Amino acid sequence: MTEKWGFYEIELAGPTEGNPFTDIQLSGRFRLGDRRVEAEGFYDGDGVYRIRFMPDQTGEWCYETFSNCDALNGRTGTFACGEPTEDNHGPVGVANTYHFAYADGTPHISVGTTCYAWIHQGQALETQTLATLETAPFNKIRMCVFPKHYLFNQNEPERYPFEGEPLTDWDFARFNPAFFQHVELRVGQLCELGIEADIILFHPYDHWGFAGMSAEQDDRYLRYVIARLAAYRNVWWSLANEYDYMKTKQLSDWDRFFEVIAKHDPYDHLRSIHNGSKFYDHTKPLVTHASIQSPHVDKGREWRDAYKKPIIDDELCYEGNIEPPWGNITPREMVHRFWTATVMGCYAGHGETYMHPEEILWWAKGGVLHGESTPRIAFLRQILEASGIDGLDPIKNENWMWNSRVAGKEGEYYLFYFEPHQPAVWTLPKGGPWRVDVVDVWNMTLTPVDGEQQGEASIPLPGKTFHALRVRKA
Amino acid sequence: MTEKWGFYEIELAGPTEGNPFTDIQLSGRFRLGDRRVEAEGFYDGDGVYRIRFMPDQTGEWCYETFSNCDALNGRTGTFACGEPTEDNHGPVGVANTYHFAYADGTPHISVGTTCYAWIHQGQALETQTLATLETAPFNKIRMCVFPKHYLFNQNEPERYPFEGEPLTDWDFARFNPAFFQHVELRVGQLCELGIEADIILFHPYDHWGFAGMSAEQDDRYLRYVIARLAAYRNVWWSLANEYDYMKTKQLSDWDRFFEVIAKHDPYDHLRSIHNGSKFYDHTKPLVTHASIQSPHVDKGREWRDAYKKPIIDDELCYEGNIEPPWGNITPREMVHRFWTATVMGCYAGHGETYMHPEEILWWAKGGVLHGESTPRIAFLRQILEASGIDGLDPIKNENWMWNSRVAGKEGEYYLFYFEPHQPAVWTLPKGGPWRVDVVDVWNMTLTPVDGEQQGEASIPLPGKTFHALRVRKA
């Protein structure tokens, strides 16, 4: 039985002649009571057509197909949708303006990483990447549909997304189903690991010509990807990595892509677009959240105020040691930026670029993690998931002067982050009584302060680098 | 014999009746060849009047006094001025727009600290402070003329600057010579240690009324201080600590103070004014350099561009552990801000605020240093003094992308500072050949890279936190 937010697929046999990718129109209408959901189908090669659907209500659904091809038109059926299994909380959406939650209401504390081209590295490395992700703290991964050509990324992928002669004569009107089946395989595996796939639809690091398709080709590609992938509950749409570095696209193209996705994705998955040096206008209504590249995480509050949406700085430089400055921050700085983003009421994204003899850098290819930030990010995620509040918002208070940073929920929960400060004493908020823990951010310890504390009590702190204070209503 | 930039004093006996501070006008005119320098005299109590003079040329000087009192008027004399002794390089002035040099041309790499009220703490503690300064790396100290009343500063000074009933009935028209003799004693001792006295003339942390004098009283106070102190070659004038927090003064008062000082100081000692939260307009012509309070040392290049003068961020927070955020940055952060200021082509100031059972915090009272930043600041000073160039200016280069920071002199000297970056390899500038040293900023080691290196060579680096690279023309 299909589960709620699970995956239902109609498989149909149809014509192989002509160009089924362009000649055939196919869609399904799914109904349960008053609800009707339309989903586009797609050609999967070898005369196989599919319509995929993610039901979001339990009960008996029925469907009917629509096509300009008789063999595919007017097919009907029913299927039962049951309760979701334990780890299935549904797709992630925006919650409380600045935060995220799964469809069942469970908060989603976004803790992402980036492996741009991990699905284009071959079976051995991709399997290793999945094994790494299984024990890593990340619940979102930024990844490209297209392969990547760039520094440390000179290898050709095993599969290409289009038919034709690689690099010389693509047929952009004919998709390569094997390529997309492979994308889906990986997206599905991520789903099983509880990881959101932040799918990057376009990017500038191209030598194949995928960045330079026509508007018609771009839109057809988008609809094909949506038809194939939207039924995966863990999908997020990222229109681009570094949209502003793609000289082949205009701002109007990006605006149109948002419209195409909003129109054809039946589930309204999260939509954003990631900048190089120039931020997109994230106030535009089809942008669900801001996906930002910036080393300046301490501007998080400004971004929240500007966009009134969830903020993820998911490229705040990479922990690593390569020469370009975007790829060599210290593990300490990575952890610092995560905590800083947190107390700004925002979310951060991890990435790693340590030099490797075979050029296997996590940031692009996956593999294994070499850095020291990951366990500290896991520790932070544990703290945030135990907060008991629906997202931390920055708290302003005259008593907490100048550089001090605190987020939480007034009267209930406060997370003070001190670095680069090291006070040896701290005055608790008014109210209470409070349960207080001293947090060693680097050594990953939570040390409770004995007993319940009253409001405005002075709490001794270690007066050392890299500490935080957690204050919860007793 | 008086040495060049030394101290010559004319002592005269005069009247004690009336109010010698206001009734008597006294000045000296000093001549050598075509040069004429006018210096105001002052009443030092007990019928003693003094005129002080700092000669800036060797040779036979003659002088003549002028007064409205016959006993003090028309006195003449001569004295010889010889070569300066080894450690006497003269007063510090602006050099190369953004930097400082002593009058003999020796660069002055400003490495300051702050002990606001150290001269008001009694003999034992003041002696201890001097002993600390003797081995500390600081060549400038920010210090107030007036005592300080503030958090951790509740003790009354031994001496007050004015006659009258303390706190109830000051006679602002009568100075207390013993108070100013004590100020001079300390300024002179600093001079012997090679430390510039950055003398803060007004400040808001007052409960005596010294911050609330009339314009006439303020100006008389300034002229008295100038008459007494200007002949000390190590004097800098700082009009205020946190001028914008002094509600008793208007912007026009500060502008006038600059004029009074410029008019009456015969030696044109450095003049600046230190902000609380609102920067003074340091483009004004009588401001010789910017004395800034800001945690944002990474804005140094912007400040240089705005003011076209030397920039000292001499209050970038204090290493310490008190609760207010301005007083509790980590030693690591203090060192980081010094290095950051350096590669921005600016200068930084140190300070310490560790909690102390007797409330003896270096920042206000002196004593001993408890922190860990000081030896690292000494290490940085050594590197800078060995640079062989007249001040480090920021260098922009397309190859050094984004967050990378480098200062020096194009083609001659480069200091790259990486934190929070940790590249494992770095490409040298074009040109060369270069002598290259890897600098461990925290552990204070300079490790030469073997041999001379060619331009654009790739240099392996430790790929660890808190490193820098020194590149010098071979």
Would you kindly provide a written description of the structure presented here, covering whatever features stand out?
2 copies of one chain form a homodimer. Chain A is α/β, with parallel strands linked by helices. Helices cover 21% and strands 30% of the residues of chain A. The first copy, chain A, contains 9 helices and 30 strands. Chain A has helices spanning 20-23, 123-135, 177-192, 215-229, 251-264, 300-307, 331-343, 362-365, 373-385, and strands at residues 2-3, 8-13, 26-32, 35-43, 48-53, 59-67, 76-82, 92-95, 99-102, 107-108, 111-114, 140-144, 162-165, 169-175, 196-202, 235-240, 271-272, 290-293, 311-315, 319-320, 347-349, 352-353, 393-394, 405-409, 413-417, 425-427, 434-440, 445-448, 458-460, 467-473. The longest helix of chain A is centred in the middle third of the chain and has 16 residues, at 177-192. Chains A and B meet through helix 7 and strand 26 of A and helix 7 and strand 25 of B.
Q: Whole-number average pLDDT of chain A?
A: 96
Reported for the largest beta sheet of chain A, the result is: 8 strands, parallel
Strand order of the largest sheet of chain A: 17-16-15-12-11-21-19-18
Could you tell me the strand content of chain A as a percent range? 25-35%
Any idea what the radius of gyration of chain A is? 24 Å
The tally of strands of chain A reads: 30
Distance between the termini of chain A: 44 Å
- Write the CATH fold name of the largest domain in chain A: TIM Barrel
Derived structural class of chain A: alpha/beta
Total of domains of chain A: 3
The CATH C-level name of the largest domain in chain A is Alpha Beta
CATH architectural name of the largest domain in chain A:
Alpha-Beta Barrel
Q: Name the CATH superfamily assignment of the largest domain in chain A.
A: Glycosidases
Which percent bin holds the helix content of chain A?
Answer: 10-25%
User: What overall geometry of chain A do the principal axes of the alpha carbons give?
Assistant: globular
Q: Stretches of chain A where pLDDT falls below 50 for ≥5 residues? A: none
How many H/I helices of chain A? 9
Greatest interface by residues involved: A-B, 33 and 33 residues
Determine the oligomeric state from the structure: homodimer
